Amino acid sequence: MASLPDIITAIHAAAPEGRAGLSERERAELQNLSEALKAALPSAVDEVRRFEGIRHRSVGVDDGELRGWLAGKTVLVTGGTGCIGSVLLRQIAGHGPARVVSVSRGHTDRWPRHDAAEYLTADVGAPAGLAAIFSSVRPDLVFHIAAQRDPGLAERTVQQTVSTNVLGTRNVIEACAEFGVAQLVAASTGKALRPYSREVYTAGKRAAEWLLARAAARTDMLVSASRFTHVVDNSIVRDKLLRWAEGGIVRLHDPHTLFYAQSALESAQLMLCAGLRAQAGVLRVSAINDLGWPIGLLELAVGTLLEEDSVSPVYFSGHDPGYESVPFPGLYDPATAGEVSPLLSAFEAAGAVYDRDLGIDSFTMTLALDKLPEQLPAGLCRACRDGEAGGVRAALDDLSWQLFDATLAALPREALRRAAARTQPCAGELSCDHTRMLAGIRAYAGLGQPEMARPGAVH
Question: pTM surpassing 0.85?
Answer without folding.
Answer: yes
